[in-house]
Amino acid sequence: MRRLLALLLVPCGLAVLLGLVVLAPSPSEYARVAERAATGQGAPGLGSQTPVDAEVLRAAGESDCTDPNLPSPGEGEGCVAVTLRLQDGPAAGSTIVTLAPTTPGSPRFAVGDAVVLGWAGGDPTDALGYTIVDFQRGQPLLLLGGLFALAVLLLGRWQGLAALVALGATLGVLAVFVLPALATGGPPVPVALTASGLIVGIVLPLTHGLSARTATAALGTLASLGLIGVLALLFAALSRLTGLGEEASELAGLVGPGLDLRGLLLAGVIIGALGVLDDVTVTQTSAVWELHRANPAARLADLYGAAMRVGRDHVASAVNTLVLAYAGAALPLLLLFALAGRGLGDLLTAEDVAQEVVRTLVGSIGLVASVPLTTVLAAVVVRAVSPSTRSPAA
After folding, report:
1. Per residue in 147-180, is it b (16+ CB within 10 Å) or e — as a string?
2. What is the pLDDT of residues 270-323, one digit of tens each?
3. Where are the domains of the chain?
4. Would you say 67 and 117 are in contact if contact means Cβ atoms under 8 Å apart?
5. d(Cα 46, Cα 130) in Å, to the nearest integer?
6. How confident is the model at residue 42 (pLDDT cuts 50, 70, 90)?
7. Closest CA to 259 of 179, 152, 369
8. How confident is the model at residue 74 (pLDDT cuts 50, 70, 90)?
9. In angstroms, how far apart are the furthest CA atoms of the chain?
10. Residue 102 phi, psi (nearest 5)
11. Cα separations (Å) of 101 from 49, 82, 111, 127?
12. Nearest Cα to 122, choosing from 84, 82, 69?
């Protein structure tokens, strides 16, 4: 059985290595694309401006918007004069006064706020060259990340440490392979499948060790991902999804006409589903192993039936989690449609929402399919590799 598992997994590993060789761009190629993007529209929210950190020293009322970088105020709206101390950039340490709009959708500033400015270039002491574009969020996010790591370590101990290392490896695959490959025009679906296979090959053994149990979970994950990829391709075509949206349109203008926006949507479906799939497949495999340990004489059908009862409960909650996760992230969009008087049918079939409907339902189908598939694989494997398995009469 162990040889059979290796026979099934080795071709997957070779396919991943082939994908890395064929799809990974050279550093110079990615550097050219990044340089072209940097001289074009720059970072999100900054346009072609250079980011500069600053601290708010004072925010006083101002009735007239005279800064040409700001939109014209509506009736009853104006601007607030914000005094800022520049923390970096060519004029670090100096103080400037810039204007911020006071429209209903604009942020409010208070003394001590850490903000990010967009500098248009020219005289670094000229206040008209700066615009407030965002808040600095590095410190609170770093604190939150530290609390997350501490919670994982307290509960998981050494296995929690392995999980954190695996998380770092996942982020590394995304940063070093996926993003450069997509930015240089790589086909999104093969890139996503290659990255998913690589993540499975790194994360599962690192977190759970090299064993027949881990190999079974990996097989269940990869098979379910293949199903998700096929369904995503089919229903994206049937639904005539374009992948166009505000961020995608901006990205297309940044990267160029060679970017496959629909493929990018499908790649997001595959990578997003992987995060839930490995949870379900590992849980199901572990459930089968523990049930077998509790009763080594259990028949295959009994082992499968008991583990499926666990899987049904897990899937029922996981599917609801997927829907609620999207609804929570998209509340402003859903509210906008509701206030516009759009019916439920119009809401669900609009491009932005339909993309997430396809993403959620395709991922959920793959999630549901992964439970019986992984469970039967695990039941067969555990009875074959366990020396204590007896073969009672069926």
Report:
1. eeeeebeeeeeeebebbbebbebbeebeeebbeb
2. 888 887 788 888 888 988 998 888 888 888 888 888 888 888 887 777 777 767
3. 2-25+157-385, 50-136
4. no
5. 11
6. very low
7. 179
8. low
9. 89
10. -115, 35
11. 19, 10, 17, 15
12. 69
Q: What is the pLDDT of residues 318-366, one digit of tens each?
A: 777 767 766 676 677 667 766 666 666 666 666 677 777 787 788 888 8
d(CA 165, CA 156): 13
Burial of 26 (0-12, 13-18, 19+ CB in 10 A): exposed
Distance between CA atoms of residues 337 and 341, nearest Å: 7
- Cβ neighbours of residue 124 under 8 Å, at least 6 residues apart? 89, 90, 91, 94
Please report where in the chains the tokens 């005279």 appear, as a residue. Answer: 66
* Structural contact between residues 124 and 93, judged by C-beta atoms closer than 8 angstroms: no
Other CB atoms within a 10 A radius of the CB of residue 72 amount to 7
181 vs 21: CA distance, rounded Å: 11
| C-alpha span between 53 and 364 (Å, rounded) | 42
How would you write the chain as a 3-class SS string? CHHHHHHHHHHHHHHHHHHHHHHCCCHHHHHHHHHHHHCCCCCCCCCCCEEEEEEEEEEEEECCCCCCCCCCCCCCCCEEEEEEEECCCCCCCCEEEEEEECCCCCCCCCCCCEEEEEECCCCCCCHHHEEEEEECCHHHHHHHHHHHHHHHHHHHHHHHHHHHHHHHHHHHHHHHHHHHHHHCCCCHHHHHHHHHHHHHHHHHHHHHCCCHHHHHHHHHHHHHHHHHHHHHHHHHHHCCCCCCCHHHHHHHHHHCCCCCHHHHHHHHHHHHHHHHHHHHHHHHHHHHHHHHHHCCCCCHHHHHHHHHHHHHHHHHHHHHHHHHHHHHHCHHHHHHHHHCCCCHHHHHHCHHHHHHHHHHHHHHHHHHHHHHHHHHHHHHHHHHHCCCCCCCCC
Closest CA to 66 of 45, 48, 80, 51: 80
Q: Where on the phi/psi map is residue 370: left (φ > 0), alpha (ψ -120 to 50), or beta?
A: alpha
Q: Are 227 and 369 in contact (CB under 8 A)?
A: yes
